[in-house]
Structures are given as C-alpha cells and as structure tokens.
Design a protein that fits this description.
Layout lengths: L14 E5 L4 H11 L3 E6 L16 H5 L3 E6 L4 H11 L4 E4 L5 H4 L4 H7 L4 E6 L13 H7 L2 H5 L12 H24 L3 E6 H8 L1 H10 L15 E6 L5 E6 L2 H10 L3 H5 L6 H6 L1 H12 L4 H11 L3 E3 L10 H5 L3 E7 L2 E6 L24 H7 L4 H9 L3 E2 L3
Parallel strand pairs: 1-2, 1-4, 2-3, 4-5, 5-6
Antiparallel strand pairs: 3-12, 7-8, 8-9, 10-11
Length: about 400
Amino acid sequence: MNDKEPANLPLRGIRVLELCHTIMGPSAGLLLAELGADVIKIEPVEGDRTRRLSGFAAGFFGTFNRNKRSLAIDLKAPAGRDLLLDLAAESDVIMENFAPGTMERLGLADETLKARNGGLIYCSLKGFLSGPYEHRPALDEVVQFMGGLAYMTGPPGRPLRAGTSVIDIMGGTFAVVAVLAALAERARTGRGQSVKSALFESTTFLMAQHMAGTTITGRSMPPMPAREGAWGIYEPFETADGQQIFIGITSDNHWRRFCEAFKRPDLLEDPRYTTNEDRVRERPTLLAIVAGLAKRRNQAELESLFDAISIPFAPVATPDDLFGDPHLQAGGRLLDVELQPGLRGQLAGLPFEMESAAVGTVRRQPPRAGEHSREILGEYGFEQDTVDALIARGVIRQSD
C-alpha cells in the first residue's frame, strides 16, 4: 500500500496487477486506480505497444493509464514468470486481457495463481464469455458488427461503428463491477475467485432494449436513422447561424412551453398536435414547422431559451468543443494529464461523484515503462541486490 495516497479513497489498500493493453483492460485498471487501488501496470520491458500507436489510437495510452505505476517484466523469461507468481501471491486482484490461451502458455493460468493465493481475484477480459466463441480473438469493432450495434448506428444498408471505443470501455466497466462484487464476497468468505467480462456480451447487453422491442412489436427494429420515433420532436435542427441544435420534446408540458415561448398558441389549439401520439402521427408537418422556428434564431439564443423553459436540448458538439465546456470546467471534471512526455492535455475524469471521497483526481501521471520497477519490488520485499540482478539480466526494466 502506498502511504502517500489519500486515506479516504474507497479502494485504498487493494493491490492490483494489471497485465493489459490497448483499451478494455486498461480502462478497467483506470477505474480501480481512480478509486484508490494500487494498480501496478505489468508491461513488457520494451513498453506497452499502445504507447507507440498513432492516428485514431494516438491517445489510448495517455487516456487510460493515469494513477498507475509501471513494472516492466519479460514474462517469457522463466525468471520473469517466477517474479509474477511471487507478486500475485501477495496481491488482491490480477487482470489480464491477452488473447485466449496466452496466460496458460505463460504458466500463469488462474488455477496456478489461485493455488498460491486463495484470496486472489483473477479477472479476465476477453472477446467472449464461456461458450462456442470463447476461443476467438475479438476487437471492439468486430463485436459492434457481430452484436448489432453497427447495424443500429448506421443508416439502412450502411452499418457503422460507434464513434468511440464504447464496447471496450463497457467491457472494462463490467469487469470492474465483477471485481468489486468478488471483493465484497471475499470480505464475507475469505475466498477469491475468477471473474470474466467480454466484449460480445457487453454489446448484446446494450442491444437488450431492441431485442425487447422486437419481441413486443413482432417486428425487427430498424437502424436508428430510420427508426420510428417515440416522440414527435427528437432530432437536430439547423439554426440561423448555420449551427445545429438537438431538440427533444418528449411530453405535453414540453410542447406547451415550446409553443408559448415561440408565441404560437395556434399550435396548442391545433387538434393534430394535442398529445405526443398525435404529434408522432403528424411528424412530417410538425418537423417542418419546428425547423422553420429554429431557423429564425441563432444557436446561442435557442440554448438560452430552452434552458429557461426547461426543454431538453443540446448543441451538436464535436470532441474539440468539450475542452471549453463551461460545465466541465466549473466542476473540475477536466483533468490535466501528461499524454506524452512533455505534452499535457485535458481529459475527462470519472463520470460520478462520491460524498465520502474526492475520486477522479490525477495523483500520478501515466508512467514511463518500468518507471516504478525498483519501488514496487522493494515494497514486495525484494532485496536491492536481487532487483539489480534482474535488471542486469534484462528480466525487468527500470526507467530513469
């Protein structure tokens, strides 16, 4: 346990070994670290390959690895494997998101590690849970297509992945739920266990509402761009200054306030638009009316108006717009993170609050590969001479 950590963090004292890369596993490790767990990132001596990605993936490492410490080990070397076994024997949680069978080939299967530590929570993050597909490797985009999310996102005939790694992060979040549940059970029984989360099942969990809709209506759900709307007004409209604003009128009170704000009592009196069901039936005429009203005012005016009359709305924003968002800025929810050596940027913190603890702060910047190797092994009781010998043999790496 790191005595420098704030004492009121809920997971303070929980030690986690994270053998993970890219997004799914590191996002789970990030959540545990933000809540106060001592998350030790186990990475190859040459460093996690995610550090070297570019393009769409350039921000992966910096985003998902703050508040962790790095221990770089060559797990293919027998001495590296033995070192990991020793560390797992004195840890609370181990997490891995390698391809199926990798941990077994390394001699680090759950049965092996739990035999030395009966209280260990062994968390695997995979493409699939147990079943016919469990041997398959998977990626976020693969399961978005396989699980129906890409079909529901794009227009008919043009399936489209979601615009962020939503399933990787969802799978990581469900892994944390499983780990926390296992820790709570261990507190009662004293026994650890193996837990598992998966990308495909995370996708199908998100598809449950559409599966239910199909069952109830007897019809397949169409993609979102072609969906049958449940509300009369629920989409973006163009503004006078060439921007777009999403308007959601989901109740009769919303409709009344909207008509009053735009001084259109005739719309309130029109029997075609009396109830939400009426407005859904009259969408073609209603959309044209609302589009004309929105087009007369600029985006800022509409935001101020809708805020005042409490109607759901949203500017159609880009990720770049989040940097200057006044709500995120005022709430301190944008964190200063070192994304690359010498380059800092603002990233979103945890999307929840706790009365008892200031969770979601940057206590440690994303580590250099092997930055904390000596520090960590010293805490586990390894003599300095032993650590020096492991470094000299290339089994571990200590960054300057």
